[in-house]
Design brief:
Elements: H1 23-43, H2 56-59, H3 61-70, H4 89-102, H5 110-123, H6 126-145
Helix pairs in contact: 1-3, 4-5
Amino acid sequence: MGRHLLLREDSLVFIDQGVKINARLYQEQVLKSVLVPWALTHYGKKHWSLQQDWAPAHKAKTTMALCQRLFPDPWSMDIWPSSSPDLNPMDFSVWSILESKACATRHTTVESLKRTLQEAWDEITVEQVAAIVDHFPKRLKACISAKGGHFELEL
């Protein structure tokens, strides 16, 4: 699989409270404005894969068409099942790191929470990301062995 899994960028993308993330907003404010420039800077012409969860904005036909045009290898729903947070490195590992740091303190404002999340994001090391990526095939094998059922596997 290699280390071509997008887990890190310069900053988190925050969407204002109350804003519904529809396909158009996701395409403009996340994919085109953030991911495309980041990918060009970090990968250039190298091959890499885009893995998304299958939130409605991600699986919209217009989003999938845009991803096919903009990215070298966007994973389709045939490759990546929906509702699989135990297999998604962002959900399983990275969000757990962010959550543990963000929830260690009570936040009285949204800005305080955003600052803490960004600080936690910035503290994630290249070594942590490498370990998460290297652990990914083990999680896939454990899921296959459990025939898609419950499994326990420590990172």
